[in-house]
Specification:
Radius of gyration: 30 Å
Strand content: 15-25%
Largest sheet: 5 strands, parallel
Shape: globular
Number of strands: 39
Helix content: 25-40%
Strand order of the largest sheet: 3-2-1-7-19
Structural class: alpha/beta
Number of helices: 25
Length: 841
């Protein structure tokens, strides 16, 4: 037993996969394995490195079984570096001075970040983006610089945009410098790059494409970055994320053959120029080529494991498909993305208004899929990528058209690869389901699908659903119940705290998914103030400060104006506030006035003046009723047949403050001409000669829906009764962040079932729904008035917890043009070090 010894140098994702693959085979008892892990942490998910921002808990990145506990054949040495290889003696000398003998040596040394050799690249405020330790250093500098400080990222590829997202999450203003003319030049083409650039720019990134770094010197904010086009960026820090290079130093020193462009040269069996030495992952140049993705790395690990156990596996080539969500933007590419195949045709659908770009590359007869690019909406990735090299099931344009029919997961052939990271086919997943894997976690455990990047999980879920398996509706890892089930628990038990709910019905301490959901449920089942007691700690940024945060850290103020009506005194007060506080003022599409640019400490002062003239919070920040849009109706318009303004005022005053799974919008039109665009709203009311027609489920967004007629010819009382039932049924049963249109579509029976519940009391709960709404109406209190009367709640509204009298010095505006616009700047010096511990989120 364990007659031979394998030494693995490197314990990253691929090195770990090699040990797992070797130990999983029955024949593995012939080998003992020593793993040298230079980093302070054993194997962790480097693909998910950005998720470390926020949790700052490296344990959450740890790969399952990375300590090899319970396996006596594996000796893991964390923090131990390999310093030299003696190929003749077949030994490795470690940083602890030991000399270890091997029968087989596996080099899994990975790669290192490429730092361009520009002047100043070794500045103390220059970082790389590679390990949790790197992120710890970036975090410390970002916190010292303060919210809004500028951070420069060198590199606009996958890693560069990941780094920019990390800076954004740390409250910085990222600038991305990319020497190519577009972002992600390897994964997307010119058209996709243009859409991607527009999307990330809208999210607050400043792009500098087609240029590079000239020099880095000391600057007033930290570093002065001069670009090759002559422009200059004053920044708090700079992050190099311009790609990686294979870590082949040990191999070079040991005299192993190195590929022309770097990397340890191997044959198709991952054997180096020394038959006792193998190379896997990013450090390996398989037949001269290095692969920087984890999926090919895992394949090399499997090949070497097979070779050590007497097999003859060879590297089959690499699937370079990628699917990511960068800064919340979907990006996917697969196959021949740049149409280099002779005779290849391109089918492109670009929708600038929606911010989406889709391209399929097909054969010259338009029958075989060769590759594709998806930007903005990558929902079709799971069904398209497995079809690469296969005959298309229909018209290529229909496959990427929003209205076209997409191939379902069930139509894929069994040998279609669903998970490219771990080379898992549809057949393997279906076999696991047949053998009893009845949820996503079980499929992941059995097959490895979805355990790396997670891009294949929608297809995995679709295969489970098509197999008749009921998928888990758990809200998150802390609650096994769905949102609707938690709502019923709260209602039935009278639980009024998150701690009480999770203590009795959940596990752990909660997360950014379940906390806001429970806060919403508590708010929609009681008239307690949303910032009262424990509730305040559950809220997201907008609800925490009862205002919408803007891109430069200021807030908007939106007073409620039912039906668009406003008294002269109120209008004068709004104008005076805008003048006194230097706010940008705009009339919104929902017939309200929005005041932009208020600092957090100014919010109570502004709302005191608005409340004094009888105005309330318009709740533009909440998942609640936003606005009831109205035309002037029969009171003024010669076409109007009902008083639409009066009805709009009545509805807004009735449903104001109603917390829901998502925002709710109303529209009331005084005639069929529909000037208030009622059929684009969650609740649309259109006047007729005989009463009101009630429409439901109209939504805007990326997938617009026209509202559908629920009932017609209603008098005032019946209209309101039906809306009461409809809204409370939605609040009770919808999923987290589910708008009314997809909610209706998800109901078994759809609109017909909804009509039965609302109009015919098909479930026998009409009285209960109406009573719940009556309690909401009776208990409504303006949230901002509640803050102004409570010194404890008022104490939250400061820019800095440990310096409440200091205004946020990063807030600045550009008044040079016709409109006041926010400017993102770094934080200047603040006396006594008081710029730390910002309360702004």
């Amino acid at each position: 037993m364990n007659e031979r010894t394998a030494i693995v140098i490197g314990h990253g994702m691929v090195g770990h996969r090699f040990v797992e693959a070797l130990r999983a085979r029955d024949e593995a008892d012939a080998w003992s394995v020593t793993v040298l892990c230079e980093e302070a942490l054993p194997a962790y998910d480097r693909v998910a490195l950005s998720s470390y921002v926020g949790s700052w808990d490296a344990k959450e990145l740890a790969l399952a079984g990375n300590d090899f506990a319970g396996d006596p054949a594996v000796d893991l040495r964390v923090g131990v570096r390999a310093d030299a290889i003696d190929r003749d003696a077949r030994t490795v000398t470690t940083s602890t001075g030991e000399t270890l003998a091997y029968d087989a040596l596996v080099l899994a040394t990975g790669s290192y970040p490429f730092v361009p050799p520009v002047s100043g690249h070794d500045h103390d405020l220059c970082f790389v983006y590679r390990t949790p330790g790197d992120l710890d250093g970036i975090r410390a500098r970002a916190e010292a610089a303060g919210p809004g400080a500028v951070g420069v990222v060198v590199g606009g590829g996958l890693l560069g945009l990941e780094a920019a997202n990390a800076l954004r999450q740390l409250g910085m203003s990222p600038h991305v410098v990319e020497h190519n003319a577009r972002l992600m030049p390897l994964q997307v083409d010119e058209g996709g790059g243009a859409v991607l650039a527009r999307l990330v720019t809208d999210l607050g990134l400043t792009l500098h494409t087609g240029t590079g770094i000239g020099s880095i010197t000391d600057g007033s904010d930290g570093v002065r970055v001069e670009l090759s086009d002559g422009s200059v960026i004053d920044a708090a820090l700079l992050v190099f994320s311009a790609g990686v290079r294979p870590q082949d130093r040990l191999a070079r020193d040991a005299g192993l053959d190195i590929a022309e462009r770097g990397g340890i040269l191997t044959d198709s069996g991952c054997v180096t120029s020394d038959p006792a030495v193998f190379a896997v992952g990013e450090c390996a140049a398989v037949e001269g080529r290095c692969y920087g993705l984890v999926a090919p790395g895992y394949t090399t690990a499997e090949v070497v494991a097979d070779r050590l156990l007497g097999g003859d596996a060879v590297f089959p080539g690499a699937d370079l498909s990628t699917k990511l969500k960068l800064l919340g933007v979907d990006v996917a590419s697969f196959g021949d993305v740049h149409a280099v195949t002779p005779g290849a045709l391109e089918v492109v659908l670009s929708d600038a208004a929606k911010g989406t770009y889709a391209k399929l590359v097909v054969s010259d007869d338009a029958r075989t899929l060769l590759g594709g690019i998806l930007v903005g909406d990558a929902s079709a990735y799971g069904s398209l990528r497995p079809l690469v090299g296969r005959e298309l099931p229909g018209d290529p344009a229909a496959l990427i058209s929003p209205a076209g029919e997409k191939p379902g997961a069930g139509t894929l052939p069994d040998d279609a690869q669903v998970c490219s990271c771990n080379a898992v086919t549809k057949g393997a997943i279906c076999a696991a389901i047949t053998d009893g894997a009845c949820d996503v976690a079980a499929v992941k455990s059995c097959t490895g699908a979805g355990t790396t990047c997670g891009g294949c999980l929608p297809t995995v879920k679709a295969l489970l659903a098509s197999s008749g398996v009921e998928l888990s509706k758990a809200l998150c890892e802390h609650f096994t119940q769905s949102r609707a089930e938690l709502f019923e628990i709260v209602r039935a038990t009278g639980t009024r705290t998150f701690s009480g709910l999770i203590g009795q019905y959940g596990t752990g301490t909660g997360c950014d998914i379940c906390k806001p959901v429970v806060a919403s449920i508590l708010a929609s089942t009681s008239s307690e103030h949303v910032l009262g007691g424990e509730q305040a700690s559950l809220q997201d940024t907008n609800d925490h400060f009862l205002a919408n945060i803007q891109r430069n850290g200021t807030y908007s103020v939106v007073p409620r104006m039912p039906g668009g009506e406003c008294t002269p005194e109120q209008l004068i007060t709004i104008g005076e506030i805008a003048r006194d506080y230097g706010l940008y003022l705009k009339v919104t599409g929902g017939q309200r006035i929005d005041l932009f640019g208020a600092r957090v400490e100014q919010l109570p002062e502004i709302w005191r003046r608005l409340v004094d003239v009888g105005m309330e919070s318009g709740q533009a920040y909440g998942k609640s009723l936003r606005t009831v849009k109205s035309c002037v109706g029969s009171t003024w318009c010669r076409y109007g047949v009902q008083d639409s303004v009066g009805m709009a005022v009545r509805l807004e005053n009735r449903y104001r403050g109603l917390r829901a799974p998502h925002k709710i919008k109303f529209g009331v039109s005084g005639c069929a001409r529909e000037c208030a665009e009622a059929r684009g709203k969650d609740v649309g009311v259109i006047a007729t000669e005989s009463g009101w027609n009630l429409y439901v489920g109209g939504n805007g967004g990326q997938t617009p829906r026209r509202a559908q007629l629920l009932a017609g010819g209603l008098d005032d009382a019946t209209l309101i009764r039906y809306i009461d039932r409809y809204l409370m049924f939605y609040v009770r049963t919808a999923d987290r962040l589910q708008r009314t249109a997809p909610w209706i579509e998800s109901l078994e029976g759809g609109l017909e079932h909804l009509a039965a519940v609302v109009c015919d009391d098909g479930l026998g709960i009409a009285d209960e729904l109406e009573d719940a709404m009556a309690r909401h109406v009776a208990g409504y209190r303006d949230e901002w008035a509640g803050v102004l009367d409570d010194p404890e709640k008022l104490s939250r509204f400061v820019s800095f917890v440990n310096a409440p009298e200091v205004p946020d010095p990063t807030v600045a505006f550009d008044d040079s043009g016709p409109r006041r616009i926010p400017v993102l700047i770094g934080i200047p010096d603040v006396p006594d070090g008081r710029r730390e511990s910002s309360s702004r989120r």
